[in-house]
Every structure is written in C-alpha cells, then in structure tokens.
Amino acid sequence: MKILMICTEKLPVPPVLGGAIQTYISGVLPYLSKFHDITVLGISDPSLPDQETINGVHYVRVPGKVFEIYRENVVRYVEANHFDLIHIFNRPRLVIPVRNVAPKSKITLSMHNDMFNPEKIDPEEAQAALEEVSNIVTVSNYVGNVIRDLYPQASPKIRTIYSGVDTERFLPRSHPKMQKIRNEIRQAHGLENKTVILYAGRISNNKGVDKLVRALPELSKKFKDLALVIVGSKWFSQNDVTDYVAYVRALAKKLPIPVVTTGFVAPDEIQNWFAAADLFVCTSQWQEPLARVHYEAMAAGLPIVTTARGGNPEVILSNENGLIVENPEDPNCFVEKISQILSDKSLMKRMGEKGRGLAVSRYKWDRVASELLEVWAQAKEVKQEKTNEEHIAEPVAEHVIEPVTGHAAESVAEHVLGPVAEPVAESVVEHVIEPVAEPVAESVAEHVLGPVAEPVAESVAEHVIEPVAEPVAESVAEHVIEPVTESVAEHAAEFESENDNIIEGQLEKGTEEQTQDPSTETDSTHEQTRSNVRGKHFIITSGVRKTEMGSTREKIRGKVHGKYFIITSGH
Amino acid sequence: MEKTVIEPWIVDESTDEFFVPDYINQLAEEVLQSYDLSVKSIQIITTKPDKGGAIWKLETNLGPKSLKLLHRRPTRSLFSLGAQEYLVDVQEARVPPIVKTKDGKNYVEAGGKLWFVAEWIEPLAPVTKDLEGAKQLCYALGEFHRLSKGYIPPEQAEIASRLYKWPKKYEKVIIKMDWFRNIAKAYEEMPASSYLLAVIDEFEEQARRGLERLNQSSYFELIKLGNAYWGLVHQDYGWSNGQMGDDGMWIIDLDGVAFDLPIRDLRKLITGTMADLYRWDVTWVREMIKAYHEANPITAQLYEILMIDLSMPNEFYKNIKEVVYEPEIFLNEQTTQLIQTIVETEHSKWPVLEEIQDDWKEVE
C-alpha cells in the first residue's frame, strides 16, 4: 500500500531531538518499509532537509510547532498526494481535516496519550474522528481504556500495541560493548564504587522526580555510597527554568549524596547512562500513558521501581523485573521499595536479568511493526469490504461455490473460501480474499503483480496473523509475545477483561480455526500457508513496489480477470 | 532576515536597562520598511530581556507611534493583535489603534516574532494614587471588559483562554505551598525559613478552602457561557497600563489579553492596592467594586467568584514563589520582613471580606 504516516507538530522525525512518538516511528520504519511504500510527514527542522528519501522511506517536512499551522500544511500535502492508508500519530484533531481532503483513504490512528480528553478535542469532533478511523492502536491498555470510557462506541477499533526498544543499543552493563562505557562514565562523574540510581525523563511536576530527591536523605542513611543521576534536558537551561526545575534543583543541592545532572543528552547516547546505572526509578505522579524509559531500563538490565499510575505498571511483573510504588505522592513509599531492592543484591541481579529477557522477547521493534502491519491489513480489509458491495458480480473462478453478493469480508472469506482452503481461512480473513470479477476492485488491482500463483510471497506469511488454535494463546499473543508463564497468563487475563471486544473477536476466530484444522497449532504459519495455497489458483501479493504498482495496474486487471482469487495481504 | 531567530538576551553590568542586541535593532529597521512612515527618530522605551521583547517610541511624519516586538509565540500574538483591532474598530474602545503596513496588515513577522506599530497616545497621565484614582481605574477596567465581549480571534490565532483553568490554577497554588515548605525545611539554616514554616500551613489551608469553595460555586455554570460571552482580561492592569488621556481613560499594552472571567483583573487590582496600603480597607474595596460594577455589571454569581478569589493567599503566593530559584539568597532577613508584612496585611483581610460578603445578595 501507499501509506502516509503523519507525525505530530512538536518534534521532527528521525528523533534528532528525541520524543517518544518520534522514536516509535523510527523504530518501526525499517520493518514497515519492507512491505509498504511509506511517506513520513512531519515538521521541518533546521538540521533536516524538507524532502528526502532514506532506505526507501520518503520524508516530507513542513513547518509546524503550532498545531494550527501544522494542520494547514498537512491538509495541503494530503490534498495534493494520494495514499491508500493514512496513519495519524496522536492527533485526533487531524482526522477530520485529513478525511476532508482524502475521502477514499483508510485512516488509522496511534494514540500515545490523552489527546481524546474533552479539553484536548471537542467531543463532537472526537466522535466524528472515531467514525472515520478504521483502527486505533494505543501504547498501553491504560490509554485505550481512557478512550473507551469516554467513547464506548470506539471500543472495537482499539488495540494495544506496546512500544519497543532497540535491544542492540540498550544493553546490560555486563555486555562487552558497555563495560568500557560504564566505567568511563562512572569515572568521569565520580561514581566509582557508587550504587547509581537513575532517573531519566522530563523534569516536571507530573513526572515527580522531586519525590525521589526527597526520598534520598532517608535512603542514604540506610545505604552507603548512593548516587543519583538525573537525565533530563531542562536542568541547565538558562532562559527557561520552570519553577519546578528550580524547586528540584534547590532540593538536590542539599542532598548528602552526589547528584549528577546530565542536561540534554543526545537521543543516541542515552543508553550509555542506563549502562552506567544500577537501579532505575520512574517517579511519575500523573496517569502516564506508559513511559518508554521502562523498555529502555529493561533492555539495559536494570531493576525498575515505578509508580502505579497510568500504563506504567503494565510492563512490570512485580518482584520479577521491578517493584511498583502504590502511593507515589509519598517519598517514604519510594524509600520502602528502593530499600527492598537495594538490600538484596541477588534480587537486584535477578530483576535485571528478567527485565533484559522481557525486553528481548516482548519489546523489540519487529514485534511492534508486525502488529502494526496487522492493523493496517485489517484497515485495508474494511475498504475492500466496501468495494465488494459496490461491485457485485458473479465470481468466475472455478473454486467459488457461492456468488458473493454484498457480504462482509469475513463472510466472504467464510463462504467462498471455506471448502477451498480451510486451514488458510484465518489468515485469509485477516487479509481479505476476493473473488475477482469485473470490475476488479481498484484497490486490489493496485497491489497485484500479475498472474503470480506461487510461490507464496514470503513476506505475506511473515505478518499474517497466525491461526492459533488455543483461544487463550491467541489473546495472549495479542499482547505478550512470550511463552505463557503463570504470571504472564495472569497478565493476559487482565488484558482480557480490559480488551473485551478485541479478544472476543480473536476468540471467535480461534475457535473456528480449531474446528477446522487442529494441526494449525504451530508456531510457524509460513509452511502452512504455503503448502495449502500452493497449487491452487490464488494470487498472494505483498511487498509490491511502487513503480510496479502504477505501471502494471491496467495489465493486471486484464490478466487477473476471471482467472484467480486474489489474496491481498494489505499492502 | 529570514534566518534570524530572536532570543532572550543576557543583562549584566556591561549593559543598561535599555540595552537591545544589535541584530534586533537591525530587524527593527527592516520591519519599519514595511510601513508607509518616514521615521524621524526611534527611542527604546522598555525591554523584556528575559523574554525577548521590546517597545520603541517613533517620531514620524504622521506623529508619534509605538513599535513593539512581541515576545510571545506569533500565533499567540495574533490573538492579542486581533483583540486590539476588534476593540478599536468594532467597539471604538480607547485603546491605541494599530497602524497598518503598506500591504494592509496588522503586523510584520521578523526573527520568528511579530512586530507591530500602533498610535502613541499623547498626552497620557497616571491617575492619582488615592481612592478616586482607584475608582477611575476600576471603571475603565469594567468598560474595557464590557467592550471586549464578543471578540472572535482570527482563525490562525491560538485561543488564549484562562476561563477553564481556575481549578488548575488553584491546585497549582496548593502544590507549590508544599514546595515552599520542603525548601524551607531543606534550607532550615536560613533566616526566613522558620518564619515561612510557621505560616505555611495556614496559607496552604486557605488555598485548599478556596479550591473547595470554587468547586462548589457557580464557576462551572458560568464558564459554560464561553469565551466570547465573558470577553478578555488584560492580565497586567494597573496604574501604568490604565492612564488618563484628553478624552477619558485609555488602556494600553494589550499583549497579554486572554479570555477569562473578567473579575480576575479586578481581584488583582484590589489585592495589589491593599498591599500598597499595608491593610485592607473596607471602603476602598467596596468603592472599587462599585465603580467597576457601574461600567460592567457584576452578577451575584460572579461576585461569589470574586469573593472566593479574594480569599486565596494571593499576596503570599505572589511574593514567595521566587523562593524556588535561589533559596540560599531569597530566604534572607528581608524575606523575613516581607513574610511578616504579608501576614499582618492579610490579617486585616478577613474582617473586610466578611463585611462585604453579602453585599450582592440583592443583586440579580
């Protein structure tokens, strides 16, 4: 598919100035761009050209900073350029303006915080925006649930996709790449032989690092050789010292232990500070969506103390990779949890290892990207469902048993495919199977590469939703990509109750699958899909390059006509 | 000119209060090219080095004008400029008319900021620092508020509104009382610390009570009437920004205007005036409110909000909030004095508030 990703007006992509959303986008792009023709629209920055193409991804940068100006530029760009799917990051207020100039594109939305709250978007506009988007992905259950509470009708569209981290960059201090860096940093800042507590994040009242600073006098009585490192850019700012930064500075100045404040650290050097630390503390006081630093701390093998606010506890398995402070407004509660960890060296080590394990197994970017690809495929499906309704025709292919008349995609797949390729049904449902008839749906034609019957494109299988037989396993896979351990299962149960609608859908399909073919209970659908499809008259397309799409479109129509089913994988 | 970005500038011993960096003076000259004016002289009047703003007085072939470099975000400045235009063109208020550029615009964008030229009103004289002067100021303020109603900002402008933020503002006061306390504890060796700690609980409690009262008041009903209904507050109104001209009171320096419940300006004027008197005086307070009311009628509901806002520890908060910056300097003997003065002045506040509490009972 030709896809436009619209960033926020605050910070540029790539994340030369940092930013959670910007990091997220850069994290998934290498994977997404293998499958789609992607343009990233964001704000301009003096250090970046207004247009460039890097590794096949087009970047377009327009003036922004202020939402109203950015919105105008976004609208202008979308008006002049067509995309099959437009993915908007964290700005529901862009949905309607974008829809107005892109009436046919699919729109999907990523929500990274509370931008749906009534003070951020007029409820009327919010509802209209929710109508227009086909899917909403959120960075935590917390974010999704807040939207659900406000707008229950959006619930079926919402899905949690936890963010990710570069586990090759954020490495444990014991890793050969990090040992030297760790030692150098510690030496340079007088942290040798210290137990270093790390805070990394904005210095704001919401983030609450003052609670940690206030916990330290007590902690330093209990533990010798503590040191605090605060990584946050506002610390040294001359012109822009907020009252809060000043407050924390004033308190820190009086601490009996060394306090290292880094000021702005380039985003590509942050990992060094994680490697130099021994314990990570997140002090957030507000209902935080889910701070990225948790993934980074895990990847760096640090035990974590975080707060029971917003989505943060969702990535903590208590006592396994960290501890959760239930009353974060009270510095004494930090004293308690931090003491618990610092007083047990073996627990500290275990927690760090568990965190690293979780990061590697659950929180890598490829997992984030593959989930996003699934969502896009679903969005695409809805579009084709519509096209089906518009172009009712007698299917010509020999394997079609019933004529398709105005059925929803799912029922199309059920009825049409059922007898043909049962085991594939699940993945097919996700990616839409269409009997090809005249006229060929435009969106299909765009992605078909000619009469390719086999072999099945590898890339399809790579991000096909796997037909998992066990219903529970499916719902777990949705959120936690790891063998199901007891605690994870618990976790999954929680998700289930919070994500009713999503999981219901999954369960249904899962159950269906099981009755059809229990043998699909396997990790890899590659072979399954391939062997089942092979030899049948299916065209599975994926990874179609842009140049091919345009030029082959008409040709394809003629060739495809009357011959094959087309399975599109949502590209 | 395109690439220059105006930043705040450092003031030290080598610079005087009228220092403006050369590149900004240069930009000022370039900005003036956009106007059909022949400028005879240009003189710096005031600077905001910490924010990056400045005002010049121009002598031109068309009389005296002001040139302003607005330090706020351009979209925010558009809001204020739109308001100034609305007040002059639509409401014929006594605020300085904006001089248009050659191509008919209200402003010039340069160095990433907005600049504009307005009429320099002459003569202007401050009102007397007595009750009569205070009443004149209050009446003019009410007039300003009344005329600002119905303002609809230009589409490109950010909407500057404090109307919905009162609870947040009160909460912030409560939160910061705790900061003050924690700092005083951390710097207990400083002279003012013990004085601050002795009174902080009481002021914090006042703020808490204020927030409670606000939450139970008609506030939430009133704000439903919306921004345009209530109009603009000036936010920086007092003896210098409200002055007497030939034909009545003029209001100047509109850069900070924002939508809000109008009585916030009035509350600030009252508390500031009482602080200058070192005591609360029931006659002054009543007369000031009455003068305002004549120009912009206060309803019983709005009066209730005014009473709540007056009961907040405004002066203490305003004067002590600096403590977070350099407590090791701020918490000195002088601040001890300051705290004592505030406590004494505030002491006389409560009987006054009690006395005027029911003044608006009969008002519809």
From TrEMBL, chain A:
Name of the molecule in the record: Spore coat protein SA
Stored Pfam families: Glyco_transf_4, Glycos_transf_1
InterPro entries named among the record's database cross-references: Glyco_trans_1, Glyco_trans_4-like_N
UniProt keyword RNA-binding, yes or no: no
Signal peptide start and end residues: none
Domain of life according to the entry: Bacteria
Domain Glycosyl transferase family: 182-356
Ranges in coiled-coil conformation: none
Keywords from the named record: Capsid protein, Virion
PANTHER family: GLYCOSYLTRANSFERASE, SPORE COAT PROTEIN SA
Chain residue ranges for the region called Disordered: 509-537
Species for this entry: Thermaerobacillus caldiproteolyticus
GO molecular function, one term: glycosyltransferase activity
Glycosyltransferase subfamily 4-like N-terminal domain residues: 23-169
From TrEMBL, chain B:
Keywords: Capsid protein, Virion
Statement: the UniProt record of this protein carries the keyword Ligase: no
InterPro entries: CotS-like (IPR047175), Kinase-like_dom_sf (IPR011009), Spore_coat_CotS (IPR014255)
CC terms in the record's Gene Ontology section: endospore-forming forespore
Record flagged with keyword Ligase: no
Full protein name: CotS family spore coat protein
